[in-house]
């Protein structure tokens, strides 16, 4: 008996969020929005959603997509600033970072300081 496929996974994985952030840079976005006619791509590559990395057959379909839940969810994900390599190294414990000591605190006014 064939195994059930999970609804949450897509067969055709698109671009990751950090790659889409790169595509949203003005120079790259201008190229993507003004592509040459390509007959192998839906809509001849003239109706493209940069945020979702999808081509559409016509402008009406793209407008419906712009109002969809999937598109709005992607826009919300793209509002977050992507992590930099420096932040990733710091989270992984790589590099030299200053040690931060906790300030001593007293549990009650009459007890000695802890720390």
- Span of the ends, CA to CA: 62 Å
Output mean pLDDT: 79
Q: Spans of 5+ residues with little confidence (pLDDT < 50)? A: none
Shape: extended
Structure summary, number of beta strands: 2
Report strand order across the widest sheet. 1-2
Q: Could you tell me the radius of gyration in angstroms?
A: 24 Å
Helix/strand/pairing category: mainly alpha
Helix segment tally: 5
Task: State the order of secondary-structure elements, H for helix, E for strand.
Answer: HHEEHHH
Estimate what percentage of residues fall within beta strands: under 5%
Largest β sheet strand count, sense and barrel closure: 2 strands, antiparallel
Helix percentage: 25-40%
Subcellular location: Cytoplasm; Nucleus
Pfam families: zf-C2H2_jaz (PF12171)
GO molecular function, one term: zinc ion binding
GO cellular component, one term: nucleus
Written overview of the protein:
With 115 residues, this protein is mainly alpha-helical. It contains five helices and two strands. It has a two-stranded antiparallel ribbon with strand order 1-2. The model has no long low-confidence stretch (mean pLDDT 79).
């Amino acid at each position: 008996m064939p195994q059930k496929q999970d609804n949450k996974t897509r067969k055709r994985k698109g671009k990751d969020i950090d790659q889409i952030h790169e595509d949203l840079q003005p120079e790259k976005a201008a190229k993507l929005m003004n592509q040459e006619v390509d007959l192998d791509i839906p809509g001849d590559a003239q109706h493209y959603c940069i945020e979702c990395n999808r081509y559409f057959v016509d402008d009406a379909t793209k407008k419906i997509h712009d109002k969809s839940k999937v598109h709005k969810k992607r826009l919300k994900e793209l509002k977050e600033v992507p992590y930099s390599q420096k932040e990733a190294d710091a989270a992984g414990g790589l590099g030299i970072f200053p040690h931060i000591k906790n300030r001593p605190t007293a549990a009650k006014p009459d007890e000695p300081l802890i720390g």
